[in-house]
Amino acid sequence: MEAIEFKGKKEGVFVLLDCSLEFDYLCNKITEKIKNADSFLGKGMEIIISLHNTDLNMENRNKLKSLFESLDLIVKKIIPPIEENIINISEKIGVFQDIIEDEDSILTNGPTLVLKKSLRSGQNISHNGTIIIFGDVNPGAEVVAEGHIIVIGALRGIAHAGVKGNDKAIVFAFRLQPTQLRIAEIITRAPDGDQMIPNDPEVARIKDKRVIIEKYA
């Protein structure tokens, strides 16, 4: 990607930044691009900054916000790489949720429940739509959803997606290692003995009346 790119979405104008670049160089490219984009970016326009490739510390985030404000733009929010990743995943499978700021809060937005913390043994989450978890689901924890289950972390507990017979539901995790995984009425369990830790995100779905697990692409 270029140092700075623009993308219009229903939520507003997104400014995509390649944060792997040296910060001062990135700021210079931002200034140059914004000054040449007067016809696209109106004075006082609200924008959403999307950080790519690597995150920025709070000091540089504040500098970035001040830079855009000096260019007569209003920064509505800054989305770090992990949250941009889940937006892309969610859009691909047909769900979308607002980004939430509070690390410990739960947001119900239409059919999607977003939880931003890990689940410990003994904790259970149940929802009548899709569940997205920014954290791990540890052994002894259980997640039950009528829709999809998406875990931005390790899934090592019990997961049941499509609980009311939705055989189109999926289970996605950065590390998919459930003790039990169920989609609709079809159940699969972890094999006995040591398991190989997956190196890539994986997705489980029903195919030919059985649950299959594939590398997510």
TrEMBL record:
Residues 4-75 form the Septum formation inhibitor MinC N-terminal domain. Keywords: Cell cycle, Cell division, Septation. Residues 115-213 form the Septum formation inhibitor MinC C-terminal domain. The keyword Cell cycle applies. SUPFAM superfamilies: Cell-division inhibitor MinC, C-terminal domain. The keyword GTP-binding does not apply. GO terms for biological process: cell morphogenesis; division septum assembly; regulation of cell division; regulation of cell septum assembly. Cell division inhibitor that blocks the formation of polar Z ring septums. Rapidly oscillates between the poles of the cell to destabilize FtsZ filaments that have formed before they mature into polar Z rings. Prevents FtsZ polymerization. Interacts with MinD and FtsZ. Belongs to the MinC family. This is Probable septum site-determining protein MinC. It comes from Desulfonispora thiosulfatigenes DSM 11270. The gene is minC.
